[in-house]
Design a protein that fits this description.
The chain is an alpha+beta fold. It has a single domain, classed as Sulfate adenylyltransferase. It is built from seven helices and six strands. The longest helix is centred in the N-terminal third of the chain and has 11 residues.
């Protein structure tokens, strides 16, 4: 490990709680309003919990979101060009009487509890501004803009995450590793120069 560079921001986060805390969270979350996550939300949650999105400790609150949208930096000045947000339907907020300080349970499509989100912010984003700042266009022909306008809900909520368990994965299990696991592999093999390749067409500026 001594040959490895420091994690981005110098800290590798692990948002998964201990086994004892997990049991307590599962019991408590039975009384929380629950959200069934989309596949994209599950992916973001996994990357938050396993530290790939370090130093984020949850979905961005409004202040962090605005900072990233307009300056491409977190509020602490760290370069971060893409917002990591959590969208919910307006009626979920209204029917569940969700407010700042509320806790909500995050579950997958099969009803397995993955995490608890403690809400710090609830807001209605300006999606036109987000599209212009993040994707450089408001054209619906752009897949990122289309997804933003047609697939995400009107309300964003942000706050810290307490992870209960990582989402189950049924594909590419051989290649799915947490940042900590990857670092252990690099150290074991004695690798010093590592190249990462991002193939997504949507994440760009």
């Amino acid at each position: 490990m001594s040959n490895s560079i420091s994690p981005y921001s110098g800290k590798l986060c692990n948002l998964i709680v201990s086994e004892k805390e997990s049991e307590n969270l599962k019991q408590a979350s039975a009384n929380y309003p629950a959200v069934t996550l989309t596949q994209r939300q599950i992916c973001d949650l996994e990357l938050l919990m396993n530290g790939a999105y370090s130093p984020l400790n949850g979905f961005m609150n409004e202040a962090e979101y605005e900072s990233v949208i307009h300056t491409m930096r977190l509020k602490n000045g760290l370069l971060w060009p893409m917002p990591v947000t959590f969208d919910v339907p307006k009626d979920f907020i209204e029917k569940g009487k969700i407010q700042i300080g509320s806790k909500i349970a995050l579950q997958d499509g099969e009803g397995f509890m993955l995490a608890v989100l403690s809400i710090e912010s609830i807001w209605t984003p300006n999606k036109k501004t987000e599209a212009e700042k993040v994707y450089g266009t408001i054209s619906q022909k752009h897949p990122g803009v289309y997804y933003l306008n047609e697939k995400t809900h009107a309300i964003y909520i942000g706050g810290s995450i307490e992870g209960i368990q990582l989402p189950d994965s049924y594909v590419f299990d051989t290649y799915r590793r947490t940042p900590l696991q990857q670092r252990a592999i690099f150290a074991k093999k004695g690798w010093r120069n590592i190249i990462a390749y991002q193939t997504s067409k949507i994440i760009h500026r």
